[in-house]
Amino acid sequence: MPVVGFHQARRPRQSPGARLRREFSWPRPGGVLISFVGAALVVGGALGLADSPGQAAAPDPAISTVLRTTPDASLKPSPPAPLSTLVTTDTPAPFLRSSPSASTSAVPKLSVSGGSAAPLTPVATPPAPAIKGAAESSPAHKLFTSGASVPSDQSLLNIFNPNSPLVLVNKHHPLAPVTYSPSDLVVPAVPVGSGEPGLLRAEAAQAAERMFAAAATQGVHLTLLSSYRSYDTQMGLYNSYVVNKGTAAADTTSARPGFSEHQSGLAIDIGDAGASTACEFHSCFAETAGAQWVAAHAQEHGFVVRYVPGSESTTGYLAEPWHLRYVGVAVAEDMLVRGFHSYEEYLGLPGAPGYK
Ligand SMILES: [Zn+2]
Question: Are residues 94 and 159 in the same domain?
Fold first, then answer.
């Protein structure tokens, strides 16, 4: 109102016709000023309403007075611009505070929804990496190309990388080099059997600790019977089998040095403290609570029972319900869900029944 009054007081006397012509001429400096103030106050009112979505904004008397007393079409408020183009800071300009409720403290930080002035451009999503060495039609390949649990170090997505939890070790694929030894071996904090405390790679050790603890909460007390074995240790073990049983029989129960999963630091042999030790490393271990528990739950901790009945021609080994291999939770659970009984089949690769 002060603006209108000031404008009218300074206007010189004119005839009614001249005044009418002047009223409808353009531009009218006073009208422009009033239009700006009116639009600003309307915008301020709109912002006050947006700031308090749960409360209806009271009409500003200043705005309604201006609009009622100025019939000029140029004073009609134009539609408020989108908030995203108006509000770019947390603190509105003073003229936008149309009511006491629109104080700075009452103004929430408005997100700039609806886009910025810059045109939107699609974000290029790089294709998920494949797992090297696995067949492209394999479930393993599909798992990782779908983006599941892709490691930050993508060199680990290689079944021939001995440092990868995905490494394939069988009678066709020895560790490379055959004398490989992991650099991150630790002693897992789990109950051990009659032997010495074992060693595992750090990731597998933590998974084993979680698995043993989970079993214990359900009354199953697993023991660790064997874990990492070096190339030299495996050499001695295999040779002892050869001496006692002959090469053919030894190859069904013990890996040659460089061909053992135990040398990867990712495999364990387990016992059951609640069962007879007579079944350790024997087929009757399958009847123990420990064997049945890991058959149902090992995958939850990233382990699989590596050599199961019926897969001898694929894995090259008789069933070993005590031998678990760490492959990570994503693979272990995917293998179980899809019903695969051997890692070779899951990778879409031929079986390895014997050495080449
Ligand atoms: Zn084993």
Answer: no
Residue 89 CA, distance from chain mean position: 33
How many independent structural domains does the chain possess? 2
The secondary structure element, H or E, covering residue 267 is strand 267-272
- With 0-12 CB in 10 A as exposed, 13-18 as middle and 19+ as buried, what is 307? buried
Angular region, 310: left φ>0, alpha ψ -120 to 50, beta rest: left
Q: State the distance from the centre of ligand 1 to the C-alpha of 338, rounded, in angstroms.
A: 24
Q: Give me the pLDDT at residue 146, please.
A: 86
- CA–centroid distance, 193 to ligand 1, in Å, is 14
- For the chain, how many residues are written? 356
Say how many Å lie between the CA of residue 133 and the centre of ligand 1. 24
Helices 202-217, 289-297: axis angle to 10 degrees equals: 120
Q: Separation of 167 CA from ligand 1 center, angstroms?
A: 16
Per-residue pLDDT of 122-152, as tens digits, reads 777 667 778 999 999 999 999 988 877 788 8
Dihedral sign, Cα of residue 304, residue 325, residue 301, residue 132:
negative
Whether residue 272 lies inside any domain: the answer is: yes
Residues paired with 222 in a beta bridge = 272
169 contacts 344 by C-beta, under 8 angstroms: no
In-domain check, residue 329: yes
> What is the pLDDT, as a whole number, of residue 233?
95
* CATH at 296: 3.30.1380.10
**From ligand 1's centre to the CA of 268, what distance in Å?**
6
Owning domain of residue 8 = 2-106
199 and 76 in a single domain? The answer is no
Q: Within a domain: residue 128?
A: no
Distance 323 CA to ligand 1 centre (A): 4
